[in-house]
From TrEMBL:
Signal peptide: none
Protein name per the record: Enoyl-CoA delta isomerase 1, mitochondrial
Pathway: Lipid metabolism; fatty acid beta-oxidation
Lineage: superkingdom: Eukaryota
Main localization of the protein described in the UniProt heading: mitochondrion
Keywords, ordered alphabetically: Acetylation, Fatty acid metabolism, Isomerase, Lipid metabolism, Mitochondrion, Transit peptide
GO biological process entries: fatty acid beta-oxidation
Functional note: Key enzyme of fatty acid beta-oxidation. Able to isomerize both 3-cis (3Z) and 3-trans (3E) double bonds into the 2-trans (2E) form in a range of enoyl-CoA species, with a preference for (3Z)-enoyl-CoAs over (3E)-enoyl-CoAs. The catalytic efficiency of this enzyme is not affected by the fatty acyl chain length.
Alphabetized PANTHER family for the sequence: ENOYL-COA DELTA ISOMERASE 1, MITOCHONDRIAL, ENOYL-COA HYDRATASE-RELATED
Amino acid sequence: MMRSKLLSLVPCATGPFRTMSTTTKLTTVEVNDKTGIATLTMNRPPVNGLNLDLLRDLRQSIAEIEGNKSRGLILTSSNPTIFSAGLDIMEMYKPDKERVRAFWTALQDAWLALYGSSVPTAAAINGHSPAGGCLLATSCEYRVMLPKFTIGLNETKLGIVAPMWFMSSFLSVLPRREAERALNQGRMFTTDEALQIGLVDEAAGTKEEALEKCAQFIGTFAKVNPIARALTKQQFRAAELEQLESERAQDLEKFLFFINQPAVQKGLGIYLESLKKKAKN
Ligand SMILES: CCCCC/C=C\C/C=C\C=C\CC(=O)SCCNC(=O)CCNC(=O)[C@H](O)C(C)(C)COP(=O)(O)OP(=O)(O)OC[C@H]1O[C@@H](n2cnc3c(N)ncnc32)[C@H](O)[C@@H]1OP(=O)(O)O
């Protein structure tokens, strides 16, 4: 994919400074040359639905951030009210056989890249973050969320079962008892509830403040040996990463089998209809 490079002047809390910015249609990477922190912004209107292209783009941007020696990665959204609506249901509803395989493989790749990223990661959750959106946020090491939005793994409410590795990300943030109950209930948490339970680390009043708080978190590693930090993080996350790496073919087949069940297709169709009806009203 062609990626256009440009230098731009952007304002921030500490005043205007130069950032190196790489843009594709679906994500933007901006590296602050003062802090060395990269902001990875999802930009797929209308709701940052995670389709094949956005997932591939995310993975490519994560690799780019690791390759350009950034000091950290902040994941956020260009949409002022939606971080990500999760997986694009259109990829799973009446799917094309080859594309849906590529789609799930791209999701596995994006998760492995983000959860296993060698750089410190934080999510500035500047909007709603259901299901796959919550997966991305909980794959990061730190979360700052804006008020009056919701976050959670709502899969059971859609008649879907979250795979083990979705649970792994959730479990790396929440105590097992809370995670199990929330997943079984398909519970969406408000910002206040998420803060109280520990699903997010901090609340912020504005996106700029959220980005600043994420940057402060990444700054806490300034005096830590980066190789020791990266290896320590990888040791903590190795079991979950290795589990998916070693079982990804079976995971794909399980997904395909599950998604092709007539009852699951029917449920997704009804859910899509309800979303479209709501959007019209
Ligand atoms: C043991 C075996 C295990 C094997 C594994 C098997 C299966 C696992 C499979 C799947 C896992 C899936 C995880 C997911 O991520 S599923 C997606 C879940 N997401 C949601 O439920 C969110 C739905 N969306 C919303 O709640 C709202 O849209 C939102 C709060 C995000 C935003 O609200 P807003 O009012 O601003 O916008 P809307 O008017 O609702 O939407 C605008 C537009 O976008 C469409 N849309 C919204 N979300 C999605 C989506 N996730 N996918 C596709 N399209 C979406 C919506 O329909 C509107 O479209 P249109 O009417 O304008 O065309």
